[in-house]
Write a structure and sequence with these properties.
This protein is α/β, with parallel strands linked by helices. The chain folds into 2 domains: 6-25 and 260-327 and 366-409, Aspartate Aminotransferase, domain 1; 32-258, Aspartate Aminotransferase, domain 2, CATH 3.40.640. The chain is 38% helix and 15% strand. It has helices at 32-45, 53-66, 77-87, 103-109, 129-132, 155-164, 216-225, 247-258, 260-278, 306-309, 313-322, 341-344, 353-358, 373-388, 390-400, 406-409; strands at 22-23, 70-74, 93-97, 114-118, 140-146, 168-172, 180-181, 184-185, 192-196, 209-213, 230-232, 235-236, 284-286, 300-304, 325-326, 362-365. The radius of gyration is 22 Å and the shape is globular. The protein starts with 21 loop residues before the first strand and ends with a helix.
Length: 411
């Protein structure tokens, strides 16, 4: 617990509160003995890749859990997006949110498909269906919605728009494994949904992903495409790439799923600890999770009101980083302000006012199995102390001429 002195803050060249860095997405490991047993089985079989038994088991298990007909495991979530969009014939322009990880846009641009950035809904923070139609042109072939921080898109509204304009629809569900929308597990909406099992996700395969669909023909096509287009021995029937998941990745993912309920319980407890610890801090608001739905609770996101907190989001981030609390600005500065998009669309921000606002206010806090309520209590006390003493902190930083950008200090 911090004492009542600015000198205790790490940003003033003192020891950080935490000896080890607390990450937003420290990997969840699960039952090591089960993992080691699976690895031993894999090595004994000598079947390390090419649709091995663990991959097949994983696909079946995910399909049953999400109540979707087909799950095609992939080497990572980005390749899953690339193959899903290519298999659907997306070309020309595809409408996407800017408030997402840049891989959502890159998966299109890599294939010379133009991502057209749409603004976020001010309540859900997912792509705003009220804004989508204004971006539809004769070149538009599809929409990608992103279920952000476990929050589902406005699925029915977006599906209606896609049907109306005969557009393909993919949902990037990288944040939403185990989450529900109106009681139905995310995974079977649109033409296809994609998953990421990157190490930072609460269910991980070291590195991996998947495409989900209820379309038999599409699933068959995706299976060809992720294996160089092979339809059989020496029979290449389609253009393809190497998107296969390895057996060791599938073994890790199966082990993660074995521990899914434990991971969710830990995340839920952490979320409640943050909610209780921050509820009286001026200018700090935790994004609520709708607990009527299932959620993985993997993303604890706070909004910083600069005027009420008397402190910018980025200054608070610097203060927390100095304490080895590695909070992240999810997703700063927005895809439209990253290359190559900021060069292609230098004035895109004028059409994305909500996204522009949100990217200056959000911080994602550490959670997962590497965090517990006692650590969270300390994190919350540091945030409380920083906000309570914001004027003194800013004046001292100015006096000491710390190497901080001026905008961090402005109110």
């Amino acid at each position: 617990m911090l004492s009542n002195s600015l000198s205790t803050l790490g940003i003033f060249s003192n020891q950080p509160e935490f000896g080890q860095v607390l990450h937003v997405g420290k990997p969840n490991i699960g039952d090591r003995e089960k993992l080691y047993s699976r690895i031993d089985d894999m090595l004994d079989r000598g079947w390390l890749t090419n649709n091995g038994p663990f991959v097949q088991q994983l696909e079946k298990r995910i399909s049953e859990y999400l109540d979707v007909k087909h799950c095609v495991a992939m080497c990572n979530g980005t390749v899953a997006l690339e193959i899903a969009t290519r298999s659907l014939g997306m070309s020309g322009e595809v409408i996407v949110p800017s408030l997402t990880f840049v891989a959502t846009a890159h998966a299109l641009q890599w294939q010379e498909v133009t991502p057209i950035f749409c603004d976020a809904d001010p309540v859900s923070f997912t792509i705003d269906p009220k804004q989508i139609e204004r971006f539809i042109t004769p070149r538009t072939t599809g929409i990608i919605g992103v279920h952000l921080w476990g929050r589902p898109c406005h699925i029915e509204a977006i599906e209606s728009i896609a049907r109306k304009h005969n557009l393909r629809l993919v949902f990037d569900a990288s944040h939403a494994f185990g989450c529900t929308s109106k009681g139905k597990r995310i995974g079977g909406f649109g033409d296809a949904e994609t998953l990421s099992f990157h190490a930072t996700k609460f269910i991980n395969s070291f590195e991996g992903g998947a495409v989900l669909t209820n379309n038999d023909e599409l699933a068959e096509k995706i299976r060809f495409m992720k294996n160089f287009g092979f339809k059989g021995m020496d029979d290449v029937g389609h253009i393809g790439t190497n998107g296969k998941m390895s057996e060791i990745s599938a073994a890790m993912c199966l082990t993660s799923i074995d521990n899914l309920e434990e991971f969710v319980a830990i995340n839920r407890e952490n979320y409640h600890a943050y909610r209780d610890g921050l509820k009286f801090v001026p200018g700090i608001r935790i994004h609520d999770i709708d607990e009527r739905e299932e959620n993985n609770y993997q993303y604890v996101v706070i909004d910083i009101d600069r005027e009420q907190a008397n402190m910018s989001r980025d200054l608070l981030m610097k203060i927390l980083h100095a304490e080895n609390i590695r909070v992240r600005r999810y997703f700063y500065p927005g895809c439209h302000r990253m290359e190559p998009y900021r060069s292609y669309y230098p004035n895109a921000g004028a059409l994305l006012p909500i996204t522009e606002k949100l990217t200056e206010r959000q911080l994602c806090l550490p959670t997962g199995t590497g965090i517990n309520p006692d650590l969270i209590k300390k994190i919350c006390s540091i945030i409380q102390f920083a906000v309570d003493n914001s004027n003194h902190i800013i004046e001292r930083l100015k006096t000491e001429k710390k190497d901080l950008k001026l905008e961090f200090l402005k109110l």
